[in-house]
Design brief:
heterodimer; A: FAD/NAD(P)-binding domain; 7-stranded mixed β-sheet; 17 strands; about 40% helix; B: alpha/beta; Rossmann fold; 2 domains; 9-stranded mixed β-sheet; two-stranded antiparallel sheet; 7 helices; about 25% strand; globular; binds flavin-adenine dinucleotide
């Protein structure tokens, strides 16, 4: 056992954990951050996009030193048919000043963020797994690690151990996943010469582009992504685990299949796959958020289901929840009260912020997607939309009003009639605006 | 009993690639680790700490980033760590390296107490010469025991040590008077995993850092590039051996495995080995 007693021990060196450790250490608390990887980020993956606002709230002007890839000036959304695409995108120089978001790689970013916490005074220890929580009289008083003499005592434990949260399960606030509450994402990092990337994506200097796409995922509910880094591309797809099970598709088969789409094939051509990884994304949304604190503990980030999957925002919610937890702990430290009541400031901060409000907005979406047919939403509708676009743009002597009818018919037929389409639209709207 | 362990931070050779254009090692982005032979030396020293209360000091000559490796040694249980770091040391060959390492051990003896035993690795993963240990022993006028695979006894009263040296044609059992310098093989022991109090101590630890100015009578002509008579006339990468590879594909992992096994059994190698 370590004889030293700490104010806080943080479990997990992802964005949530590092944000919490940094904020507490900076306020002078005695903090230990424990990460199981060889270093933070060693095995972590995400898309990924890093947002300015929430990290700036923690480390002003972080972009001057953080390892970021490219500043995103254009975001594209593609709806894929078999051999076609309907696209929607927005490019704007205004995204540069102030910068809205960047592409990034976790291997570098997490390491940097954790080192900031270390510089602020946090004791970071790596290659160490937290195996359980230590409790006395129902109160969490520390953690047990897989090292010899591995018990560590602290006033409060910050649980930031990610989507599979072993500790969340131990606290009883995190039940086992249902396959329709998580999606599995597979991702490749594909090396490509800088000039080629800049040419293919129409970029200058440090500019970058993000592309998200739906459709062409073998009828499974999912989303694909393609992001530009300095001299690599991040490419992947995530689909609901329940759909993968139903369709007996292996994730890498899906990825290989999607790569063949003409829109993507040309952009990826000549690249060399450097890394391959898979990771879960919590998609349970608002209804699956657990209680966020208790006697001697708080839970943040993915472990607390704080992911906005509609907008692929996760790191920013993780960082913000980590900061809120730290601020509440700093208050608790002042009052010497680490009970559930003493830590309630954390729940309140989350509730009053965009974190809670954004997730609430989409609270119906999980059930909406669960109850609707994935082949309709992620295959038939995208196909019908592509067909409609094709018909409208094809000049073959058929009259424009007939074309419009054909296009409309295609879409309504895909959903099983006009009434069903309207109902679907209405339900979808409600789900996105709860 | 005071034991000094010499360690070198080296690039993790499992991660080294060769730049096909320039034929040089790509060191950038390669994680640095403690030369793993040295960890076996440290482990042996720590066992004497556990059994007879030896004091263990770890030393390294290297860039400031070698602090990370020294901290790892502290985590495992070393008492003190010294980093000898100065731009003037850069470019050292084994002659210059062993000069500085020997000076460091002398200074450690003056400041932390008389040294009884020094552990070095048999060789490093990057330089690979195996010359530094013997070079240091000569300069300090210590007895040297190289290729040690087992320490049989450490007699504190008579101030002797008995070891097994692993030679090509057998094992040599030798005993010598302390102080001595030992270069170790990996068979010696299994390095321990640091305890939690160890890693916590390491996270807060700052090694002692010495530069050229800290050595009163250092001969500046013997250090760094200036003190290194080695001339690298040419380096090249051996042609990779051509091997015929074949991708074996199949409808499922089971089918691929079955195919692979079948081919292995019916291969020329299998019949040569008398398997078939
Ligand atoms: C494919 C994919 C794409 C994504 N794209 C984006 C994107 O573009 N933008 C965005 O903002 N978000 C994105 N996300 C979501 C984002 O990655 C997560 O929301 C975010 O990483 C959550 O941070 P966290 O700190 O809570 O958890 P994590 O980042 O998962 O960190 C948890 C850490 O805890 C460690 N750990 C776990 N258990 C233990 C233990 N027992 N002991 C010690 N250490 C432990 C882990 O090693 C890990 O380092 C994406 C996710 C995926 C999977
Ligand atoms: C032909 C040649 C050219 C070289 N050119 C250069 C060059 O231009 N620039 C350059 O930087 N290097 C160069 N080197 C590498 C440098 O000479 C060696 O890395 C260094 O002298 C140590 O030798 P080694 O790695 O072979 O150690 P070995 O003799 O194999 O090491 C044996 C043991 O000695 C101890 N030891 C070794 N080094 C240290 C240390 N620094 N601190 C503490 N203990 C130590 C360790 O216990 C180690 O296990 C060159 C090497 C060769 C062979």
């Amino acid at each position: 056992m370590a004889t030293e007693r700490f104010d806080a021990v943080v479990v997990g060196g992802g964005p949530a954990g590092s944000a919490a450790a940094y904020t507490m250490a900076k306020a002078g608390l005695k903090v230990v951050l424990i990460e199981r990887g060889e270093f933070p980020g060693a095995k972590n993956i995400f898309g990924g996009v890093i947002y300015r606002k929430q990290l700036e709230d923690i480390i002003p002007e972080f972009w001057k030193e953080a390892p970021l890839e490219r500043q995103v000036i254009e975001q594209r959304m593609w709806i894929l048919g078999d051999q076609s695409a309907v696209t929607l995108s927005h490019r704007n120089e205004a995204f540069k000043e102030p910068n809205n978001c960047w592409t990034g790689l976790r291997v570098k970013f997490d390491q940097w963020f954790a080192s900031k916490a270390e510089q602020a005074g946090s004791l970071n220890i790596y290659e160490t797994v937290v195996t359980e929580l230590l409790r006395e009289n129902g109160k969490v008083v520390g953690v047990r690690t897989d090292r010899d003499e591995g018990d560590l005592y602290a006033e409060v434990v910050v649980v930031a151990d990610g989507v599979n949260s072993l500790l969340g399960k131990a606290l009883g606030v995190h039940r086992e996943w249902q396959p329709n509450e998580v999606s599995l994402a597979v991702k490749e990092v594909i090396a490509m010469p800088k000039e080629k990337i800049m040419d293919r994506f129409n970029l200058e200097g440090n500019e970058g582009v993000t592309t998200e796409f739906v459709g062409n995922t073998m009828g499974m509910a999912g989303l694909g992504f393609l992001y530009t880094n300095q001299d690599t591309l991040s490419f992947g797809v995530g689909v609901m685990v329940s759909d993968l099970k139903k369709k007996h598709v292996k994730p890498y088969e899906l990825l290989e299949g999607v790569k063949q789409h003409p829109m993507l094939r040309r952009l990826l051509q000549g690249g060399e796959t450097k890394e391959y990884a898979a990771h879960l994304i919590p998609e349970g949304g608002f209804h699956s958020i657990p209680p966020l604190s208790g006697d001697g503990w708080v839970i943040c980030g993915d472990a607390a289901q704080l992911v906005n999957f509609v907008h692929r925002e996760g790191t920013n919610l993780a960082m913000t929840s980590g900061r809120f937890a730290a601020e509440a702990i700093i208050e608790a430290h002042e009052h010497g009260d680490f009970s559930r009541a003493g830590l309630a400031g954390y729940d309140r901060r989350v509730r009053e912020s965009f974190v809670h409000k954004d997730l609430k907005k989409y609270k119906g979406l999980h059930n909406f997607l669960r109850d609707s047919d994935p082949t309709l939403m992620f295959d038939k509708l995208p196909q019908a939309l592509n067909e409609a676009a094709y018909q409208m743009l094809l000049v073959d002597g058929v009259t424009k009003s007939e074309k419009q009818r054909m296009a409309m018919r295609g879409v309504t037929e895909a959903t099983g009639g006009l009434m069903s389409l309207i109902k679907l639209g209405a339900r979808g709207w409600r789900a996105m605006n709860g | 009993m005071h034991i000094v362990v010499c360690i070198k931070q080296v690039p993790d050779s499992r991660e080294i690639r060769i730049d096909p254009n320039t034929n040089t090692l790509v060191r950038q982005g390669v994680p640095a680790i403690v030369n793993y032979y040295d960890l076996h030396g440290l482990e042996e020293a720590l066992r004497f700490k556990d059994t007879v209360g030896a004091r263990v000091t770890v030393i390294s000559m290297g860039p400031p980033s070698a602090e990370k490796s020294l901290r790892q040694c502290i985590a495992m249980g070393a008492d003190e760590a010294v980093l000898v770091s100065d731009r003037a040391f850069a470019g050292a060959d084994t002659l210059a390296t062993s000069y500085v390492v020997a000076l460091t051990i002398e200074k450690v003896a003056q400041e932390f107490g008389i040294v009884d035993l020094v552990f070095c690795g048999k060789q490093t993963l990057d330089g690979d010469t195996g010359q530094v240990g013997p070079g240091v022993a000569c300069r300090l006028d210590y007895d040297q025991l190289t290729y040690v695979e087992k320490v049989v006894a450490l007699d504190e009263k008579n101030h002797t040590i008995t070891v097994h040296r692993h030679l090509e044609d057998g094992v040599e059992v030798v005993q010598t008077k302390l102080p001595a310098l030992i270069t170790v093989l990996t068979e010696l022991n299994k390095p321990r995993r640091a305890s939690l109090p160890g890693v916590l101590k390491a996270a807060q630890y700052k090694p002692v850092v010495w530069s050229t100015n800290d050595f009163a009578n250092i001969d500046r002509s013997k250090i760094g590039l200036k003190g290194s008579p080695t001339i690298v006339s040419k380096t090249w990468v051996p042609e990779p051996r051509k091997v015929n590879t074949e991708m074996i594909d199949g409808p499922s992992p089971e089918a691929i495995a079955a195919d692979v096994t079948k081919r292995l059994w019916s291969s020329e190698a299998a019949s040569r080995l008398g398997w078939a």
